[in-house]
Amino acid sequence: MKDQLHEIEVEAKTTAEAIKKALRQLKAKREDVNIEVVCEEEKGLFGMEGAKMAKVKAILKQK
């Protein structure tokens, strides 16, 4: 039987926001999680945000 969720993928407007969101969802500190950037955000026309969302994978470290 598998425990609680220890790995999630999160999207946000920026990579930093995606990391913060993942940490909140896992209820963990940054040092307790391995972060893998799946894709960086891409700016839209004229540098506007949101053309492509950033996506990160957060994996809770084993204690």
Describe the overall structure.
With 63 residues, the chain is of the alpha+beta class. It has one domain (7-60). The protein contains 1 helix and 3 strands; from the N terminus they run βαββ. It has one helix spanning 15-26; strands at 7-12, 33-39, 54-60. A 3-stranded antiparallel sheet has the order 1-3-2, with helices on one face. The longest helix has 12 residues, at 15-26. It is elongated and about 45 Å long. The relative contact order is 0.32.
Could you name the key traits of this structure?
63 residues; alpha+beta; 3-stranded antiparallel β-sheet; 1 helix; 3 strands; 19% helix; elongated
Report the major sheet. 3 strands, antiparallel
Shape: elongated
Q: Mean pLDDT score, rounded? A: 87
Q: Helical element count? A: 1
Distance N to C terminus = 19 Å
Radius of gyration: 13 Å
Residue windows where pLDDT falls under 50 for at least 5 positions: none
Fraction of residues in H or I helices: 10-25%
Number of domains: 1
Beta-strand fraction estimate: 25-35%
Number of strands: 3
Q: Structural class given helices, strands, pairing?
A: alpha+beta
Order of helices and strands: EHEE
